[in-house]
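Hi all, long-time lurker, first post. I run a small reading group and we've been trying to get comfortable going from sequence to structure in the token notation. Rather than ask abstract questions, I figured I'd post a concrete chain and ask someone more experienced to write out its structure so we can walk through it together at our next meeting. Sequence below, copied exactly:
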Amino acid sequence: MNADRLLALYEKVAEAPNAVPRLRRFVLDLAVRGKLVEQDPTDEPASELLKRIAAEKARLVKAGELREPRNAVVIKRDELPFVPPAHWVWARLIDIARPSYGFAFKSSQFNGEKRGMPLIRIRDISKMDTEAYYEGEYDPGYLVRAGDYLVGMDGDFNLRRWAGPDGLLNQRVMRINGWRCEIDPKFVKLPLQMILGYLHGDTSLTTVKHLSAKQVNGIEIPLPPLAEQRRIVGSEEELMALLDRLEAVRTTREATRDRLTAASLARLTAPGTDQADFPANARFALATLPALTTHPDQIKPLRQTILNLAVRGKLVEQNPTDEPASELLDKLHSESSKKKKTARTSPAKHAAEMSFECPPGWAWAQVRQILAPDRDISYGVIKLGPEPKSGGVPTLRCSDVRPGFIDLSGVRKVQESIEADYARTRLEGGEVVINIRGTLGGVALVPDDLKGHNVAREVAVIPIAADLSGPFLVYLMLSPYFWDHIQNNLRGIAYKGLNLGILRELPIPLPPLAEQHRIVAKVDVLMALCDRLETSLTTADTTRARLLEVLLHEVLGSGLTTRT
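-- Answer (accepted) --
Happy to help. Here is the structure in token form:
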């Protein structure tokens, strides 16, 4: 395959998800199947190379410089994810190069002040740089130099040609150097990458994968003639460089597109935007978004903009005949005062926290001012205890409270004797639940059929007044405006959470009740449109991904060397 063929293929699948990474794997696949370059019958046969490898091995064994390993895990060739051409030969990695393994240097002699020698750990292989240094004596046999190949023996089995500073080979890192018989290490890297990927998938299903020396001893590399090795390396490097450039162009294009989208949407919600300019800004955004929105992940900013417009009073028109929100707050305050002593806070006190001016008829309030008169914000069961085999009270955790809905698929139960101490958070239906610890971002309205359920410690129950729209308050608390306040008020170091006292005081823009209902109706319609657009884009991405796989499969299955 040459650059022109690759460009033609890229133009067909450029918008497919992960197009460039998949094309990189495709080029690698062609290389190890002998389909990247033409074979030349005048090349010295690979069988001659195999004879030299055997002779060199015999010499090294006789000189005591090479020992046959006692243990090796032989990899079955027919299980590998590729089949090389018949004229290639197989040779063990340990017969054509010198794999060696790192040393467990004392951690007490590590430092981050660059004293001593750089210490190459698994995490440094991909970065080509080191964070830790070793200050102490070391065996020169553990020295890594530029050009050596390194493999991480835990995790992803990363294979890289080291281009960083000279350093020391730490434990669980393998170095490959000492190449023999003129074999091109840049070629060996290609099938070795795929073999390591096979071993990574074939190891036991543990959290961390481990590569053993026994497995390395059993690795065989398919080798073409030396001249063909060099042609393959030259073509692979040319095509990978082209893909690097294509990826850079795509990244720049997507970043520009995202900035244009963000700028278009920001003009709708910027604090200094004049209300008279809003229609023109909205028309501009609506005209440009179809061209800029090409992937499902771009729908999230659109949803956030809709919510931002909703809580700023820019999504529906205000009706001067609506009962003002200030009168609604007066009613709530009056009802609350009948049952408990409530200090009403003047909105002016929180002017510093108000990031925008409310429309006519709206009013600023605090979360505690919208509560049901006989209830307060509370968090739930602190220790759930073992789940009872029978009975128990269903209890919502942060994993159950999602953005806009409650997921009942994984709800667990708590023993009645434990739940009895948390009657204050026993749900009645109509409350808003919000995650205050753990997985933040979940806010939902409690449906009536969850009456009798409870919540866990990481979930707060906000019992809103009956005179307010629960769906509007959920949209409000899902909006970027509200979550900016939450993010700025999180407390804790390792495990951040929101204090209930802070939650009670958070400022919220409150429209008249009639407008709350109009906003909810409008947001529902727009979110449904977003859902359909997201589904359409997801389907398009799936179609493009399938097209990519079909095209690559056709090339791989054609049996042709794809050089023009």
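A couple of things your group might point at:
The two ends are 7 Å apart (CA to CA).
The chain has three domains: 1-41+225-321+512-564, 42-224, 325-511.
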